[in-house]
Amino acid sequence: MRVPTRPGGIIFRSTLLVLALLCGGSVSLPADDDPPRKMPEAVARVLPWLPEETETLFVGRSVTLTDFESDEARSWQDYGVNLAVGDRGDKDLKRFRGRKIECIVAGAMNFDGVSSFGSLRSERCSILVFKDDLGETGKEWTEDLRKTAKAVRTMVGHEVFVFPSTTVMEPWVKETSWQGTYFVLLKPNIVLCASSDRMLETMLRRINDVPKKRALPDSLPEWKHVDFQAPVWMIRHVPQTGKRDQPVGSIALFMKNSFRVTYIPRTENEKYQELVKAEWLPEKLFETEKSRDQIKIERQPDNTVVVTCDKPLIGENTFLIWFAWQLYRMQAYELFQVR
Predict the structure, then answer these.
(1) How far apart, in whole angstroms, are the C-alpha atoms of residue 61 and residue 320?
(2) 173 by DSSP, 3-state: which?
(3) What count of Cα atoms within 13 Å lies in the side-chain half-sphere of residue 67?
(4) What secondary structure, in 3-state letters, does the chain show?
(5) In sequence order, which residues have a C-beta less than 8 Å from that of residue 61 and are 6 or more positions away?
(6) How far apart are CA 121 and CA 177, in angstroms?
């Protein structure tokens, strides 16, 4: 996971550790009352490839792979793209920087906290659909991978390049049998990046024979709050746990200079807004009113709780780094929920 900390900077994990210890031209946000309801065709075409057990979904449309090591200022949209691509995107996809992507569709499931400062392990796969065929660049990319890969496998008729897992874990956490980093040039314009070989195999079989049922069906309440025109968005559907204070799910919209998060509580709990405030605005970490004015947390008439930020992700702003960390944790935020 990477969090921008300065114009063009990449996230350094020590910053996150410090935060955890301490804690013990603008683009307007889309309105939530009438978001467009039609899913983009490119997204609808590949969404059924994801396993039906998928819990978290990232989607980016008409975006560009950025270089997080450059001196160019980052944005919330770029950060959302980085989350969708995954941990190895900066290194292993650098040949594709600047290329236009029709859509990124990334699914994840089976989350686990594997470090004291909150690093997440999950089975996930990112589908990158480029606007144009990669051509010679795609061939050069696969040859680069072949030279450095830990292994090269054949899986469901496709060449798979295998690398070690990049998930930061405590020494006492045992690596799973499925864990690793796996790359596939599926088609001349489609790349798959996975953290689980068993999830990747499932997806390759679904690609060959797409089943009728799909991950995150239209019947879920989260879809009502998705704006399909947002450049990057995320859905988290929380598996049933029996805990009344855990939400049904959440939605995040990543804009250039703003983000919007919507929580859907499992019950009509008037105190849920305070639980969300405790997550985003911990008293021990940020106490000044000036900092707290950078974010708004409001309970809506439909009982959802909405978090909004109109502050661009630019500069050495510790508060914005904290917001980025919260957005990273939203992939499986109930693992960190305040009790």
Answers:
(1) 24
(2) coil
(3) 10
(4) CCCCCCCCCCCCHHHHHHHHHHCCCCCCCCCCCCCCCCCCHHHHHHHHHCCCCCCEEEEEEEEECCCCCCCCCCCHHHHHHHHHHCCCHHHHCHHHCCCEEEEEEEEEEEEEECCCCCCEEEEEEEEEEECCCCHHHHHHHHHHHHHHCCEEEEECCEEEEEECCCCCCCCCCCCCCCEEEEEEEEECCEEEEEEEHHHHHHHHHHHHCCCCCCCCCCCCHHHHHCCCCCCEEEEEECCCCCCCCCCCEEEEEECCCCEEEEEECCCCCCCHHHHHHHHHCCCCCCCCHHHHCCCEEEECCCCCEEEEECCCCCCCCHHHHHHHHHHHHHHHHHHCCCC
(5) 40, 42, 43, 102, 103, 104, 228, 231, 232
(6) 13
Handedness of CA 330, 125, 134, 151 (dihedral sign): positive
258 and 308 in contact (C-beta within 8 Å)? yes
Question: 38, 108 in Cβ contact below 8 A?
Answer: no
Q: What is the pLDDT along the chain (339 residues), one digit of tens a residue?
A: 444 433 333 333 434 433 443 444 333 444 445 555 788 999 999 999 999 999 999 999 988 877 655 545 478 998 899 899 887 656 788 888 888 899 999 999 999 988 887 889 999 999 999 999 999 999 999 999 999 999 999 999 999 999 999 888 888 999 999 999 999 999 999 999 999 999 999 999 999 998 889 999 999 999 999 999 999 999 999 877 545 456 689 999 999 999 999 999 877 777 888 888 888 888 777 666 666 778 899 999 999 999 999 988 876 677 888 888 899 999 987 777 643
Tens of pLDDT, residues 83-120: 998 876 567 888 888 888 999 999 999 999 888 878 89
Q: How many CB atoms lie within 10 A of CB 21?
A: 11
